[in-house]
Design a protein that fits this description.
By secondary structure, the protein is an alpha+beta fold. 17% of the residues lie in helices and 25% in strands. The chain folds into 2 domains: 1-51, no CATH class; 54-128, no CATH class.
Length: 128
């Protein structure tokens, strides 16, 4: 972690015009200050998660989150990531058995919405 800070800040000092948009890091940098800094300077972080470091967050009882940070619907399927709303600091996930053109084709739909259940995860609550 300390070597990342030193290297990153030194690079920024020598190359102030260089703009970083995405940052790929290993699990040693899976810390909330790194996510907070990335949000402040508008960098999209891709960080390997530390196994078991899930925090203490309460979610609705109709979905869970797997080890990769992807939502799991009531049927046990991984939900599809459907973008990120930077202005609202939230990631959007949608039903794995639906698409925008044909709608939801689940036997027992869990939502009346045309293209199935949609869940928003606020990154202010959990940036990981």
């Amino acid at each position: 972690m300390l070597s990342l800070l030193h290297s990153f800040l030194t690079m920024k000092a020598y190359l102030p015009e260089f703009r970083i948009e995405k940052l790929l890091l290993d699990s040693a940098q899976d810390t909330y200050p790194v996510y907070k800094y990335c949000r402040q300077v508008n960098i999209t972080p891709f960080i390997d998660l530390i196994p078991g470091h899930t925090g203490h967050f309460t979610y609705k009882d109709d979905f869970t989150i797997d080890d990769d940070g992807v939502l799991i619907c009531k049927m046990g399927l991984r939900m599809h990531k459907d973008g990120y709303e930077a202005a609202k600091h939230r990631a959007k996930y949608r039903c794995p058995k639906a698409n925008r053109k044909y709608g939801c084709f689940c036997e027992h739909p869990c939502s009346p919405a045309k293209y199935g259940r949609t869940v928003h995860i606020f990154t202010d609550d959990n940036p990981r």
